[in-house]
Amino acid sequence: MIYIGSHVSFDKKDQLLKSTKEAISYGANTFMFYTGAPQNTIRSSINNQKTLEAIDLMKENQIVLDKVIVHAPYIINLANRDNLDFGIRFLIEELERCEQLGISMIVLHPGSHVGKGVEEGIKNIIHGLNEVFLKNQGNVKILLETMAGKGSEIGKNFSELKQIMDGVIDNQRLGICMDTCHLNDAGYNMADFDSVLKDFDSILGIEKLNCIHINDSKNERSSHKDRHENLGYGTVGFESLLKIIYHPLLKEIPKILETPYINREKPPYKKEIEMIKNKEFEKNWKDSIEKEALENVE
Ligand code: FE
Ligand code: FE
Ligand code: ZN
Predict the structure, then answer these.
(1) Residue 166 vs residues 134, 159, 160, 174, 213: alpha-carbon distances, Å
(2) What's the total number of domains in the chain?
(3) How close is the Cα of 153 to the center of ligand 3, in Å?
(4) What residues have their beta carbon closer than 5 A to ion ligand 2?
(5) CA 148 to centroid of ligand 1, rounded, Å
(6) For the domain that residue 170 is a member of, what is the CATH number?
(7) pLDDT of residue 179
């Protein structure tokens, strides 16, 4: 048994019920969503009736609420002092929304230091997270995501994430979300994932790994680009990703696809999840989805 799903949408009206239905349509048993548009702060209040309906539907479809993930919006940048107060406030609101939805984990990009240097950035992130945990005494975990190192992103290696962990007082409320595209772009060799995991374990401890984003990458290792690719079409490759998904030490960890839509309009997730379950790559699978889309237009 593995926990596999994808990014899905969440809307104002049907909220978690909409996300759940979308995940079911892909054959997923977990999923991840933003509580609103990731690039703005407009959020509607949580509709408890829709949440209850969603949880019932999850139970009927073997989706485990404990494995469902929220992704914090990327306008939160705790590494930048100028945006820190806003980030703290908004992150606290996100934690409250998670609590109301029954979600136990939220993924957060550590932040970008925007020219002020890694040390200053990490200091701000630690300060921000300490404030957030001080003002929110709930038990939703914040998962720091491993980043590609694009621009001035912090979290491009395990030791930067470890420095954040060490500075946060309530760090039992912190975990890590690996992103396979970001790790590749940051310079990790995904073809030798056992070594990557060993490195992770010696620096952070394997128990800190709580979620994995499964993405192929459009770019070479160490490119620091962060452009996701569909499974089997990138530089990481289907076999390496499959090994990570079925890794015996990572069975309980939810795996979430964030691969691009085909021609920007058709979600690839049903097919990608099917191939993962079959443990077999279908050559040119994107072509068949493209063809299907064309036929629907005609
Ligand atoms: Fe992310
Ligand atoms: Fe990601
Ligand atoms: Zn990314």
Answers:
(1) 16, 10, 10, 10, 24
(2) 1
(3) 11
(4) 179, 213
(5) 10
(6) 3.20.20.150
(7) 99
